[in-house]
Design a protein that fits this description.
alpha/beta; 10 helices; binds S-adenosylmethionine; single chain
Length: 313
């Protein structure tokens, strides 16, 4: 498995950016390497002024109680449906969940700017889910600055937890109780105690093929699986490092061999995945599978790719 720790990415055997790299990109890559070296040497972060605080959901929010109430009423309906589709009941009332979530998200969270990670919308779906399940082992792959780990700790601080990332240099929040492993999960073996857990939760936000991650989690007898960025074929350009093939893509029928797309000016090429569809269907049908709905129009936070949640039936 080839990884680029500096860029926080793992190369995917099913797709790649097309060479030759444009001159513009070449200069950009050299400048980026210099930036990384300076940052690592002085232990500082260089931010382009234009991008500072851009895309940070915590900088804009409704303040008035009546606006917030209206938001909560609309979100309640969507979250109720989301949990119902997953065949689960929340442990507390949904309005309370939203209020608690907002306190966590806008409150004392140590990750003040989670650009590169999940924003308000995804965070709310995650928190609602966490409040409705009882996992005994939580495995998170793709930690970044640690915001989602912080969110997990709000419910499961006392549970067994293992965190995987190929590069922990950006960590701003570290769970006191979790085990941190700086390598890909596929090179790691769970011990007997971990294997014996009956309600394992896997949360993948590592931009690795979701098909491969699903097979791994299923083999390890997952009870719950979460995938961030479960995008469709036609929206592949929306993700700079797609987890191709995603679960949604595996369920779509694409009949071309090779396909191309452009993301922020860079052309990428993917190979159509060849796999035994019937076998995959048999495995995925053991789970309730729900993709999140777009709530940008209610929350005002920009649209991020769909998240998906699976629970073993
Ligand atoms: C989108 S970020 C995760 C964001 C995080 N879930 C949040 O919102 O708080 C993706 C992370 O995946 C990590 N990553 C890349 N390849 C990986 C691999 N093979 N295994 C685990 N993590 C990987 C990157 O280093 C990066 O930290």
């Amino acid at each position: 498995m080839k990884i680029s720790k500096e860029d926080h990415v793992t190369f995917n055997k099913y797709w790649n950016y097309v060479l030759p790299i444009e001159r513009k990109n070449l200069i950009f890559n050299i400048l980026r390497k210099i930036k990384h070296s300076i940052e690592n040497f002085f232990n500082i972060k260089i931010i382009i002024k234009k991008n500072f605080e851009e895309g940070n959901d915590r900088n804009s929010l409704v303040i008035s109680k009546n606006l917030n109430k209206l938001k909560i009423i609309q979100l309640e309906t969507i979250l109720k449906k989301f949990l119902k589709d997953l065949h689960i009941k929340p442990n507390i009332n949904i309005k309370k969940i939203i209020t608690q979530h907002d306190k966590i998200f806008f409150g004392n969270c140590p990750v003040k700017d989670n650009s590169g990670g999940i924003g308000y919308n995804g965070s709310l779906f995650l928190y609602s889910f966490f409040n409705s399940i009882k996992p005994d082992l939580i495995i998170e792959s793709g930690v970044w600055k640690g915001y989602t780990s912080y969110l997990i700790d709000q419910n499961f601080r006392k549970n067994f937890q293992i965190k995987f990332d190929i590069n922990f240099s950006k960590l701003m929040y570290k769970s006191k109780t979790a085990k941190y492993i700086e390598r890909d999960i596929s090179f790691f073996k769970l011990n007997k105690k971990e294997l014996n857990c009956k309600n394992k939760l896997f949360f993948f936000d590592d931009h690795i093929s979701q098909y491969d991650r699903f097979l791994l989690a299923d083999k390890l007898d997952a009870k719950y699986i979460i995938f961030d960025d479960d995008i469709s074929h036609s929206s592949i350009h929306s993700d700079g490092w797609p987890s191709y093939p995603t679960i949604k893509m595996c369920l779509e029928k694409l009949d071309s061999g090779i396909f191309k797309w452009k993301t922020l000016g860079k052309v990428a090429k993917g190979k159509q995945m060849k796999f035994n569809f019937a076998k995959f269907l048999k495995k995925i049908n053991k789970y309730h599978y729900v993709r999140t709905q777009n709530i940008s129009d209610i929350t005002g936070y920009y649209r991020q790719p769909c998240m998906s949640f699976l629970i073993k039936k």
